[in-house]
Amino acid sequence: MNENDSEKLAGMLRQIGWTPAEKAEESGLIIVNTCSVRENADDRAFGNIGKFKTYKRKNPDMILAVCGCMMQQPEIVAELRQKHPQVDIIFGTHNLHRFPQILGNFIAAGEQITEIWDESDAVVEDIPVENKYPFKAYVTIMQGCNNFCSYCIVPYTRGREHSRQPERILDEIRGLADRGVIEVTLLGQNVNSYGNDLEIGIDFATLLRQVNEIDGIRRIRFMTSNPKDFTDDVIAAMAQCEKVMPSCHLAMQSGSTRVIRRMNRHYTKEEAIALVRRIRDEVPGAVITTDIIVGFPGETEEDFQDTLDLVRACRFDSAFSFIYSKRHGTPAAEMEDQIPDEIKHDRLNRLLEVLHTVSAQINAPFQDQTVDVLVEGPSARDASRLTGRTAGGKLVNFTGNFDDIGRIVPVRIDKAGTFSLTGVQTAAEAD
Ligand code: SAH
Ligand code: SF4
């Protein structure tokens, strides 16, 4: 979501005549788009702002702006203004679309501007987006979140859930397809509750089926799914729609029913395992990834063992695992039985061991298989090779043809590692 917001800022700036600078030090404008989901994201943003403000000494006309979720928290804005008065513009998540006007006002008056809105009524349409890749794009289908998981800051910084009208989403995707985009990722904090607020009788499964009809689009992905809203109809849509990729990011957070309840997430360990089983039964080759938090307040060793059990039962292809981070203003931050850091770290290490063992086992059968890969560009580790993703979303680094960037090509896997696959392109574009 944060990356997609940055793409919107880039798109709006391009429209009013700004272009990307080669070096941050020499640019006329730096925007720090902050994330607040965990404390280390907050710390990193403050570190970056401290660094960027030193650039202003050599380049006094540089404009420094800060936006994003951190700016929706008044105590953080106060701290920012006190520690870094050099920041010229502060704006939030709800008025992102106003950035060109705010920037214009700053340039005209030359005075610090802080403009933050508390809420937004609906999704603002027609913001130009500058996609990082010409062949794949994020498409926001809904903003905000109504779930109030007890550890999470997002409902406070992003506001209530607002779904976009399906015609607007479909028009945007048709436009992207006309411009050569072949893969779209539908974005929302909980995509499976798409449409609940629209009162026109549309749900996420229906939207998937409609996007599947759009000519030119070849791969459809979506992110993120809360297990409580993952209906059998969505599983059926995944199974039936040839363009909907066999993959989903199903954030489990914990395997302990007791902890899940305290997290305010409304499913049990058994329901979570049964859901994954249904997806794997109905969607051949489904790649299922997850998010897990260790050290939630009150998490006992037994609760943690339930999480390890869940991982072994669901056999996630990969996972993001996080140490619980106290977020000011959330109910969990007020819970009494906070877990000591050593225990959190120990649990994270033990969780990673199990996750990695499972990932290695799941990836092993890819050895000597040929998979279809959407080629994204040079590999980050070795620029003489290419990188891309399989239908399920697995990362592949391979030797191949640089002219095929943006195309889907067959790659024969010669090494199936825990975190990625390695191989060689065997032919030109796949059917
Ligand atoms: N809307 C998504 C999650 C968005 S936040 C969903 O519900 O699936 C991304 C991930 O950050 C969450 O899935 C969770 O695992 C993690 N996270 C959120 N708040 C956190 C906190 N206070 N401490 C640690 N991890 C957190
Ligand atoms: Fe946060 Fe829960 Fe909403 Fe995800 S569903 S954004 S974890 S409150």
CATH architecture of the largest domain: Alpha-Beta Horseshoe
The overall pLDDT average reads: 96
Largest sheet: 5 strands, mixed, barrel
Topology-level CATH name of the largest domain? pyruvate-formate lyase- activating enzyme
Strand order of the largest sheet: 13-14-15-17-16
Total helical segments = 12
User: Could you give the order of the helices and strands?
Assistant: HEHEHEHEEEHEHEHEHEHHEHEHEEEEE
The overall number of domains is 3
DSSP helix fraction? 25-40%
Structural class label: alpha/beta
Any key phrases for this structure?
Rossmann fold, five-stranded mixed β-barrel, binds iron/sulfur cluster, 3 domains, single chain, 34% helix, 431 residues, pyruvate-formate lyase- activating enzyme, four-stranded parallel beta sheet, alpha/beta, OB fold (Dihydrolipoamide Acetyltransferase, E2P), binds S-adenosyl-L-homocysteine
